[in-house]
Each structure stands twice: as structure tokens, then as C-alpha cells.
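Researcher: Next entry in the queue.
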Amino acid sequence: QVQLVESGGGLVQAGGSLRLSCGASVSLFSVYAMAWYRQAPGKQRELVATISNSGNTNYAESVKGRFTISRDNAKSTVYLQMNSLKADDTAVYYCNARRILTYANLDYWGQGTQVTVSS
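Model: Structure for this entry, 119 residues:
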């Protein structure tokens, strides 16, 4: 069983920065692909950024150039550095761990951390 615990959310003014962290209690953290999702009130959960087990990253168009995802396998932690925050970034941010298997994927989720950007 994988447990994910997010931290680092909070209230910030537009233009400010936050860094989210997601600690994983799991062996072999390095084999998991990690991602950050977010869900704003009344909207569907959307993918924000991904980082593969080899370190390749991808971003939603809306956050490219502003957000950076990274991982520290020694600490079993994934980060999301968020700069130049906008009011539209307000959402609950969720950490996701995915184990890619031959015939299926195993997905695990954190409880979420609230990010509120005031304009």
C-alpha cells in the first residue's frame, strides 16, 4: 500500500510562489511515475505536471514556464514549484503515484492540499 502526504499549500497573492511537497511511504519509490493534479470548485480534476521514473517531465499548457515538477528518490518525495501564481491556479492539488505494470496501472492518491491565490 502506498501512502502519499502533500504539504505546502496555502494562501498567496497573485504573482507569488509556493512549493508543494508530496512524501511517499513506499519501497521502490523510484519505479513510480509521479504527477500533480488539481481540482478547482465545480471543475473536473486536471493534470498539472508529470515526472517519469527516469525524470522526464510534462506540463499542462496553462502552467508551462511557471511550474516545475521534480523528484528526490532518496527522500521518496516529489515537488511542485509554482511561480507567478494566478487566481486561476486556485484549487486543491493532489499528488499521484503510478506504477506501470504490463497489463494495468496502479494509481495512488494523496488527500490533497489547498492552494488559494488572491488577486
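Model: The longest strand covers residues 91-100.
Researcher: Noted, moving on.
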